[in-house]
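[job 0412] stage=complex_fold ligand=flavin-adenine dinucleotide status=START
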Amino acid sequence: MVRQNCTSATPEVRRALCRGGGCDDTQAGITYYFRMDEASLAAEACDVAVIGGGPGGSTAATLLARRGYRVIALEKAHHPRFHIGESLLPMNLPIFERLGVVEKVRALGVFKPGADFEADNERGYSTYAFARAIGKSPPHSYQVWRQDFDKMLFDHARACGASAREGHEVMAVEQLTPRASRLRVRTEGGPDYRIEARYVVDASGRDTFLAAKRKLRRKNREHQSAAIFGHFRGAEARAGADAGNISIYSFEHGWMWMIPLPQGVMSVGAVCRPDYLKQRQGSTLEFLLATLKRNAALWRRLETAQLIGNEVRVTGNYSYDATRMGGPGWVMVGDAFAFLDPVFSSGVYLAMSGAEQAAQLVDAALREPETELALLRKLEKRQRAAIARFSFFIYRFNNPILQEMFRHPSNRWQLEQAVISMLAGDLFDTPLVLRRLRLFRLVYSILALRHWRGWRAEHRYRLAQARSQFTGGNTPLDKL
Ligand SMILES: Cc1cc2nc3c(=O)[nH]c(=O)nc-3n(C[C@H](O)[C@H](O)[C@H](O)COP(=O)(O)OP(=O)(O)OC[C@H]3O[C@@H](n4cnc5c(N)ncnc54)[C@H](O)[C@@H]3O)c2cc1C
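[job 0412] stage=complex_fold status=DONE, emitting structure tokens
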């Protein structure tokens, strides 16, 4: 039997501790003790437990381990494992530098100088080149195979001192006190074991481990879409300097991407409204090809290409957030907190920048607990503000007014450059970009008033789609 002092615990926490083992003395105002049961005796102690070894989890684990904390990072799969989300933003680069992985990303990636969208010009598209952004975002980014990128980041966290474990799935988390959470971990083939952590970072992606357990997850009421995608060999790349661009196409039920990856592979997919995916007939492969044919310009680049392994994936039911980002002793980062439609490739950047901020929060909270709640509020506000700025464009991307603004870009008042900064991910701290984006929204609203019938029809349809039920995915995340 172990006796531990819990004098500083609140009455609520003492009750929780007593439930776990039994108090010797429960009188108010004096020293409290509790017995630790066998499970807690066997628990491995650490400062921070990180759930999930994607970009968000690996970033938090690296930065906290570097600060000298004992970090255990738990990934249920084994790297390299498949993941979608291959196009990175320029604003990822400063994070790579701070992590010390810029060269590794460069070695893994395809150089991405910009994004292109269909346009009514002789080439059929306009490039939004990152070099023209008005903020301080780097002039390029990369596109990566996520299985290689995620493995590199997880290995890097291990090299920086985190105990990074693969094939270890967190099954349960019980919070005993604000500074003591007990995790039950399942290993493949081995016995379950327990970890006792002073802080928990949930980076479990779209599994939304803590948000689901704490019933914090809420579906986005303004937008819903689902994706169908595959990887092709032999697709036509853009010419010259545009070869590494992500290309975005639209069609009547959503939008499509073409992302050039290493070794001549092209990731191609369509993000569609649920109504369209519900009409699916025939095999998933036939449906993907029929969908891609709906945009003639995209199909011209693809018609002689081969779908690798004839493998088609569908993932549904996304766009959600949690009602809060954390509490004393726990915080959520990346998709574990919120997920947006990926039209602007924002997911990895939001996960890594959120994780960077969360690492600072955890460090401050462990040193000066009284600062924790204020810092959490600040972090959540910052993260939600960036999500809202991306969301403005995402929600309206299929609206004829925004389509028109993308097809005929005008740089009056630097609005086109502000859009480029948004595409680069410069949405947090650059006042000039934020001012220009406010102006862009104003111009959009004026145009919407002028063409209010078209705007209203699209707006109503979007909200109706957001309410629709769709569970047609075939990736592991869709089984949740
Ligand atoms: C169709 C589509 C296209 C996308 N395209 C892009 C794009 O081009 N660019 C971009 O930036 N983003 C894109 N995204 C978004 C991107 O995939 C995510 O935003 C990003 O991967 C989030 O990183 P994360 O670290 O939060 O979560 P993840 O990368 O999902 O990592 C979470 C990890 O946690 C592990 N895990 C889950 N539960 C547990 C548990 N209980 N115990 C242990 N481990 C656990 C999982 O196995 C996983 O490895 C796209 C998403 C979709 C659906």
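The longest strand covers residues 168-177.
[job 0412] exit 0
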